[in-house]
Amino acid sequence: METRKELYRGKAKTVYATDDPLRLVMHYRDDVSAFDGVKLARLDGKGETNNRINAWVMERLTEAGIRSHFIRMLNERESLVRAMKMVPVECVVRNVCAGSMAKRYGIEEGRRLPEPLFEFFLKSDALHDPLVNDDHIRILGWASAADIARMRELSYRVNDVLKPMFAGAGIDLVDYKLEFGHPLDEPGGDLVLGDEFTPDGCRLWDAKTGEKLDKDRFRRDLGEVIEHYREVARRLGVPL
Predict the structure, then answer these.
(1) What torsion, rounded to 10 degrees, do the Cα atoms 138, 123, 90, 118 define?
(2) Which residues lie across from 28 on neighbouring strands?
(3) What are phi and psi of 183, to 5 degrees?
(4) How far is the CA of 7 from the CAs of 4, 15, 27, 183, 236, in angstroms?
(5) Which tens digits make up the pLDDT trace of 196-220?
(6) pTM: predicted TM-score of the whole model, two decimal places
(7) Which of 3, 23, 27, 4 is CA-nearest to residue 15?
(8) How many DSSP H helices and E strands does the chain contain?
């Protein structure tokens, strides 16, 4: 498959067209950012590490019956994915209070929630990804009522699969974000999982010590970011 022009350049990934309009190449760069692009750096090995972690997680979700845009890894830094029309909202599931939730409600970080908590955010760096509700999404035309319900359902299903999987590796799945879209090769088809699942987009804490194993190490200047990403991969059994 031939890789062609650049379609989109995000904070850490670049998406390229191919000679098949229904297939794209997702290239994972070594860039890392925080605070909506205010804090930037390059970390050697990050692109390869995230590509491998994402491929492994997406394969496990597929085995559990949760479909995604992921097709296969092409090389160390690139994966082949289905072209999608993305819904412009992020779905966040929280098992433990941390990050923006702790700040927003004045709750101590680390409080375990009695059940998973779901939130929607508008995907907009310029607006700092504001919290939105079902009515915002439906009335403003970002997604239908059926898609809203489906995104919530799938997000909880992902939690049911990944939370015990990470727990088996001695890791608490604190929270994570997901994005969904409609594949262009299935007009009128169901939503499927898009984007990625890596330590860039979730919080992972060591189950015994509470040590942070995710991008908070970069946000909070804790150091050894890639070393801890690779520790996550090692514990899960991801080949590096």
Answers:
(1) -70
(2) 13
(3) -65, 135
(4) 9, 6, 11, 17, 32
(5) 999 999 999 999 999 999 999 999 9
(6) 0.96
(7) 27
(8) 6, 15
